[in-house]
Amino acid sequence: MRSLIALLLFFSFFLSCQSRFQKIAPISIPPKEFDLGKGIKAILVPSELSFITSKGKLLEFDLKEPFLSAAKGEQIVGYRKATFKIKDRIQYFCNEQSLENISLESGSLLIQGKLSGEGCETKYSIRFTAKENSNLEWKVEISHPDLNRSYIRFKSDEEEAIYGLGEQFSHLNLKGKKPFLFSEEQGVGRGDQPITWGAELLEGAGGNEYSTYTPIPFFFTSKNRGFHFEHSAYSVFDFEEDPEIRIEIREKGFTVNSWKAENPKEILRLYTQKTGRFPLLPDWAYGTWLGIQGGKEIVLQRIEEARKAGNPITALWIQDWVGQRKTSFGSQLWWKWFPDETRYPEWTKFVKDLNSQGIKVLGYINPMLATEGPLYEEAVQKNYLVKNKEGKDYIVQTAGFPAGLLDLSNPKTRIWIKTVIQENLIGKGLSGWMADFGEWLPTDAVLFSGESAELYHNRYPVEWARLNREAIQEARKEGEIVFFTRAGFSNSNRYSTLFWAGDQMVSWGKNDGIASSLVGILSGGLSGLSLNHSDIGGYTTIPSPIKDYFRSKELFLRWAELNVFSPVFRTHEGNRPLQNHQPYSDQKTIREFARYGKMHIALKEYMKFLNKEASEVGLPILRPLVLSYPNDPNTRDLQNEFLVGEDLLVLPVLEKGEDSVKGYLPEGEWEHVWTGTSYKGGTWIEVDSPLGSPAVFLRKKGDWYERLKSALLPLKRIPRSSEPESSPLKKKENPSKKMILFSVG
């Protein structure tokens, strides 16, 4: 029955989409060329309006049909633990378009006309202005004050691949897809079964292929053109119809910055020049970040075990520095934002002692307060929390307990929580923290500023990051402290110091497991999130009558192997630490994880070089092959392998029980790090990749070839024949291959 209802709703929505563009009444203008300056021209013919730059065609509107329409609508929103079920009820459409004027005005091309429909009429204007670097800015203005939906469409090549839109965890190439952009919890399962079905049934929290913490309304295409839509509303980017792109924005009017460039790297440079770039990480950030909790004695014991095995621990991430509570979801924190001196006696001395050993200490904070404790009481008294429609504090139900959400639109709230950060985090010795959440603002909340919560919702995680960055800057600790965020929107890359990919399942699932974390990082990198990483081993751990989702030893080690090549190498125990395999679960894991830590820090100078490049030109550290080899048709859909910079290529094992991996090598000559075997580019290969020997290749003529080879080769696994049968390092049996066992090293 639920499936039938969903199908009927979809069909109804589909029909409504078709009616959003009805007909156009064109103006009678002979073919004409308009020079906008800056190397951009507009060419008008009876059936088309095109914008041409010195680097080629940027934008085309089909004048035989409407390319702009508007409507009045109302969102029907279901909200549960930052999972949103949103339907749009349209009251009327202005879906007929007329063109009444196309002319140059003050150097800009101005289009004016009317939009009309049953019971609907409004004037509109679109102003196209040429900027530097083949940047065409266009502003859409709709006159009628009641209209709050805008629709635009323009031409697309049928073979045009499309990338970006923030962290997309299921798809890299979005051609043929229809993502919606709204910051929310990514969901549990996102299509992987049976967990999605169970999460949806019990909590309405299964998610889908487009749910994400960090949607960003920016994309670029294989035609080397990029588009950034400047708005904050819920939006839909429809790439399903091959010949065109359709975009719906639930806001009245919008601004677009579009670019035409020689290659996608240049588009990213121009886009991040406008929206911001990540700073340099401090030197300590390139070692192992050990995510441990449980109190002072346990933490010190785990550090000692890891360091004795040779793991280069440079950071201790203690999320339970504020204390820990048990809930139905597992181990949760006390959201009170000051040290728990019971779990960590003499906190300040504890931090200083670790600092003296070369280990920085990081904590945790989010923009909510549990409904207990002195900070919550103060926030209530001073009206620092968002309100509901009755004017009362909006209390949300989190995974285990209620909490109030800080109103970041209130300047006094911002000053207050920055003071808390400066005194209780920075002032207590922390060198960084997870700045969690940001996607929880209900759309029916009432804000201090009077702004619509529907429009502020996507901005909230950006403002949360901005606030954290300002607290660091005001404390004069810029460049010394790192905070990492998971939620965001446009301009997050201006304020965050680091991203992480959020709460993936502790699974091999393609939509919400190890593979999805990589796709999210790669797509985010194509949207300006150049510094990103994931929790080693995943986070979400769920017992179930049908299937338990607990972290296995194999999954932990494969995920650690993958994250060796991330800018930050950080573990997370997950929400049920006792059910998950951990970096300290047994001696063999401790030794193997230490070897991965050595491998990661061996890449330190290369990572620092790439970090500098990211801060200067906006290129991501982890890159899908299409970014560097855009003219190779074999790279356009690759999302399970990646480049680190330009000189290191990784084919990770992302499936359970596999000890070999298939992948594509782009043009050039590539050398397998561990065997020294050279491969000619432009070919598909399959290579052995037993645990501990990831399939890593170096570009033989790359600038970093010799240095990377010298750094990694000493960590080559040494064969031995004494590996126990139960070891996950043993290759799986294959009658066609000789059994080879590998030592831990």
TrEMBL record:
Q: What is its EC number?
A: 3.2.1.20
Q: Return one GO MF term.
A: alpha-1,4-glucosidase activity
Family matches, as SUPFAM superfamilies: (Trans)glycosidases, Galactose mutarotase-like, Glycosyl hydrolase domain
Q: Which residues form the Glycoside hydrolase family 31 TIM barrel domain?
A: 279-595
All residue ranges annotated as the Glycoside hydrolase family 31 N-terminal domain in the record: 77-238
Q: Where does the Glycosyl hydrolase family 31 C-terminal domain start and stop, copy by copy?
A: 618-700
Q: Which UniProt keywords apply?
A: Glycosidase, Hydrolase
| Residues in the signal sequence | none
Give the InterPro entries listed for this entry: Gal_mutarotase_sf_dom, GH, Glyco_hydro_31_C, Glyco_hydro_31_N_dom, Glyco_hydro_31_TIM, Glyco_hydro_b, Sulfoquinovosidase_GH31, YihQ_TIM-like
What are the start and end residues of every segment in region (Disordered)?
Answer: 719-745
Q: Does the keyword Hydrolase apply?
A: yes
GO BP term (any one): carbohydrate metabolic process
Q: Which residue intervals are annotated with compositional bias (Basic and acidic residues) in the record?
A: 720-736
Which NCBIfam families does the protein's record reference?
Answer: PRK10426.1 (NF007746)
Which family does the UniProt entry place this protein in?
Belongs to the glycosyl hydrolase 31 family.
Q: What is this protein called?
A: Alpha-glucosidase
